[in-house]
Structures are given as structure tokens and as C-alpha cells.
Amino acid sequence: MARFTSFDGTQLAYREVGEGSPLVVLAGGPGRASEYLGTLGGLDASRRLVVLDNRGTGESDEPADPFTYRRDMLVRDVEMLRRHLGLAVVDVLGHSAGAGIAMGYAADFPAHVGKLVLLTPALRSVGLSPEQSDWDEFLAAREGEPWFEAATAALDRTAEGDVSVENRVAASPLLYARWDETTRAHAEAELGQWKYPVALGYNAEGAFVPGVLRRALQEFDRPVLVYACSEDPISPVRRCVQLAELFPDVTLVVHEGVGHYPWVEDPVAVAGRVEAFLGA
């Protein structure tokens, strides 16, 4: 992996795969190494993916000050990567919590963004997180699944304070539309990829000022793709519709029959739809 020095001297790592116009890719978790993104279903066939390991994850170093794990501080790492790459304008894709970073980058550095892709975006940064009614509806539709009892027990343990990666993985069947050998392997890989201190820092006090970010995004006039999935409890379709309404120039895609990691379950469709937007 290649490396660069960020704003506070922390050495960060990124990998490049594929050829074509560059696409900066931001991982979620928060706190998960970018390895889980793979090639986003083969998007590297048409794009040069520049996939960043957020500070403290994967091959990137831990910062001296854990304050810099905060979502709004991670935006600065994206800008330092852009400068390192020598690009005046970059297309940016953020998945899940990485979409929170991507939206922050669009708000703080709009002149340096070409197109913005928000792939099953986490929505806390704009005040649109799922409500209890969203979770109730989602869970009711899955009560008959053989994994349901164990997965929801893991959710209960999370609510009681269990922040272990093992517990996260135990709840992960809820994040896929199907639970099979492929999705299980993708979920279990998180055991070696996720770091709690990074996730804690991302969500630290002061990291989210939804009103300020919403107003900035309403002024962001570059093309935006909001990519929602019908079986995703993190980014419910109705909340993604509300997110899309913030942007002046937006395309909303609703991918039916897949969950929070759509490129794992339907890779060809994801790569095709994202490239269709980027290439338009």
C-alpha cells in the first residue's frame, strides 16, 4: 500500500486498484479497515479506486491524539490525500460511516469534489438516523429467519454495553438480505478489521452538528448519487429519500433485494449503477 503524511503528521495508507479516472473511496464501520470494500463489485474495471484506510485502521498509523478520530477531523485526511495525489478535483465515494466523512468533505471542500456517491450511507451526521419504528418494521419482517434469535440477542447485548467485535459479528446477519457462505465470510472478516477506539472516536462529542451540515449540503451543487438498499436497516429507504431531498443535483437509486453491503450480494449491479452515474 502507498502512504502519505496527513495534517498532524500521521502516516496514512491507501491502495490503488484498477485503471481510469480516480475515485477516492472512504470506508465505514466506523473503525473498519477498508479491506472489506474489496473492489466494490468490480468497479475497478472502469475506475482507478483509491481506497483509504482511515487513521488507526488497516495499514494506517494510529494518531498521537485520539481526538482526530472524530468524523469531522477525518475530513481533513481526505483533503490531504487529494493534495498528495495532485488532483484539483476528485470523485468521492463513501460507504456507511464513510458517507458521513464524504458529506463532510463535500461541505468543507466543495470546489474539490467532482461527483459524490453515498453508498448505503450512515445518516447520523445529517440527523436522519433510523427511528425505532424503522427497526421495528425491519425486525418484524425477519422473525422467521433461523439466525434471528441469536442476532437480536446480540443487538440486546450491544444496548447493554457489549462493544466487542465478536458481538458485532453475531448481529451481522441483520445487515445482509441473505445469510449464506459468501455473506458469512464477509461478516466474519470484521473480526480482524474493526477497532473499537476508532469507532468511539468517530462518534465523539462534537462530531455531529446536523443542522450545519444539512445547510451546507443544500448549497452543494455537484452531482450526488444516494444509493439505498431495500433490506438495509442502517440506511432505510425512506430516510435515504429524505437525504436525497437535501441536494440540488441528485440521483436516487433503490437496489431491491440486498442489504447494507450490496456489492457482496449483487456485485455486477452495484458496479454498473455506480459507473453509470460517474460516467454520465
Q: Output the helix-strand order.
A: EEEEHEHEHHHHHHEHEHH
What general outline do the C-alpha atoms trace?
Answer: globular
Biggest sheet: strands side by side, in what order? 1-2-4-3-5-6-7-8
Q: Could you tell me the radius of gyration in angstroms?
A: 18 Å
State the low-pLDDT regions, or none. Answer: none
Query: Can you give the mean pLDDT?
Result: 97
Give the tally of β-strands. Answer: 8
Instruction: Describe the sheet with the most strands.
Output: 8 strands, mixed
Report the portion of residues in β strands.
15-25%
**DSSP helical segment count:** 11
Distance between the termini: 30 Å
Estimate percent helicity. Answer: 25-40%
Alpha-beta content class: alpha/beta
Write down the oligomeric state. Answer: single chain
Describe what you observe in this structure.
- The protein has 280 residues and is α/β, with parallel strands linked by helices.
- The chain contains eleven helices and eight strands.
- An eight-stranded mixed sheet has the order 1-2-4-3-5-6-7-8, with helices on both faces.
- It is globular and about 50 Å long.
- The two termini are 30 Å apart.
- The mean pLDDT is 97.
Helix and strand arrangement:
Blueprint: E1 2-5, E2 11-17, E3 22-26, E4 48-52, H1 71-85, E5 90-95, H2 97-108, E6 113-119, H3 132-140, H4 148-159, H5 165-171, H6 181-188, H7 196-202, H8 210-218, E7 224-229, H9 237-244, E8 250-255, H10 262-265, H11 267-279
Parallel strand pairs: 3-4, 3-5, 5-6, 6-7, 7-8
Antiparallel strand pairs: 1-2, 2-4
